Amino acid sequence: MEGLYQTTVDSCGQLILPTEVRKELGGVFYVTIFAENCLAVYSTEQWKGLLDKLAALQRTTQQELRPIFENAVGYEADKRGYVLIPQNLREFTGITTNVTIVSRGDKYELWDSSNWDKHGKSLH
Question: Beta strands of the chain (E only): which ranges?
């Protein structure tokens, strides 16, 4: 997974995923909360790998990671590339209109573009 993309989310919470991103993620993918107030987007294969890793962790560590899995949403983008980002996930990230999609090797991150400009760029 590679690239940096700009997109938007409408007032209903529908985000347009670029064609390149949809192709790399495949048919079904998962979105959940992540560090620094962004969302992580995983392909089905990557998500299953995370679940396998979680199962191998100690119970206390599993409990610490619970919010990541409790807030996960499985998606399949429609033919136009739209996915609905739930209100609670938009509030977590501060996403309102402009969204920056950043590749992180094994996943994509969704950032409110102003937060990306302030905080995210320094992480890469």
Answer: 4-8, 14-16, 29-34, 38-43, 73-75, 82-84, 98-103, 108-112
Task: Estimate the share of the chain in helix, then strand, then coil, as percent rounded to the nearest 5.
Answer: 40, 30, 25
pLDDT at 1 over 60: no
Question: Which residues 6+ apart lie within 8 Å of 26 measured at CB?
Answer: 43, 44, 45
Give Cα separations from 21 to 33, 85, 119 (angstroms).
18, 16, 23
pLDDT tens string 60-79: 877 888 888 889 999 988 88
> pTM surpassing 0.85?
yes
pLDDT, average across residues 86-93: 93
Q: In what order do the strands lie in the sheet with 98-103?
A: 4-8, 98-103, 108-112, 38-43, 29-34, 73-75
Distance CA 33, CA 69 (A): 9
Domains and CATH numbers, the chain: 4-123 (3.40.1550.20)
